[in-house]
Amino acid sequence: MKEFDKICADIKSLRIQGATNVAKAGVRAYLLKPSKSSRKKIISLRPTEPALFNALNFLEKGYTKKEIFSHFESSQKKINQFVSGLIRKNSTIYTHCHSSSVIKALIAAKENGKSFSVVLTETRPLYQGRKTARELANKKIKVSFYSDSAMHEAVEKADMVLIGADAILRKGIINKIGSEAISEIANVHGIPVYVVSDFWKFYPKTVDIEQRNFNEVWKEAPKSVKVRNPAFEVVPSKYIRRIVSEFGILTYSEFIKKADNLI
Ligand code: RUB
User: Fold this and answer.
1) Cβ(189)–Cβ(158) below 8 Å
2) What is the tens place of the pLDDT at every residue in 73-122?
3) CATH number of 74-260
4) CATH no. of 2-69
5) Ligand 1, pocket-test mutation among 11, 71, 95, 97, most atoms within 8 A of CB
6) What percentage of the chain reaches a pLDDT higher than 70?
7) Which helix (H) or strand (E) holds 132?
8) How would residue 261 be classed by pLDDT, with cut points 50, 70 and 90?
9) Which end of the chain has fewer CB atoms within 10 angstroms, the N or the C?
């Protein structure tokens, strides 16, 4: 298989997943075959990923791959410091799915000597929660792992929620399905929800919510059963205490004001 097609297949199958990794892989693919139709194809693989759209836009404006990758790297370094500063001693942190921004920040906090544990659920249908649990456990971070159905109980154990974002819209963020329920539960219990994200996830227009193949949920379902598999959902801004980005730890409206002038 040609390298371009392989990267596209890896993005589609979620071997490459998470908004930042998808954006970087999309840039690599585009540069192998730069054309309007490649751009269209790459975007169609994951339609809910503004970091990917923005990265391709910046490429078209003349940014190099090196500049784009170093943007992501330097943002993450700043984010790590801000997240570290938010974590109180012996905190229990709830996270969801597999966000490289959250995971890198937690690993950096651990390396900085912060003591905390992490709670999360499996994140069906593709179990990205297991991937997160494994990566954190490999770095000697304490992890408690629940089934998705135990989400309420798991969130109640936490004193803060850290989730990533696929998109940051004016009305709220988009992240893996389950993120809205988690944020609602956290709000009911007075647990602050922080979104950890590079500002390139900001998108001033609406984005489509990706509907994934029903096979991921139930391959042998009876014909009359309509299996649904929405990949993402909107977390309304009212549930979000702060957005932690390279800009700092900002309220929702402060973040939008800043990002609006730059994207
Ligand atoms: C992953 C997911 C992540 C965001 C942010 O979903 O929802 O929280 O993409 O990721 P999927 P990052 O597995 O469907 O891609 O922080 O790595 O940009």
Assistant:
1) no
2) 999 999 999 999 999 999 999 999 999 999 999 999 999 999 999 999 99
3) 3.40.50.10470
4) 1.20.120.420
5) 97
6) 100
7) helix 128-138
8) confident
9) N
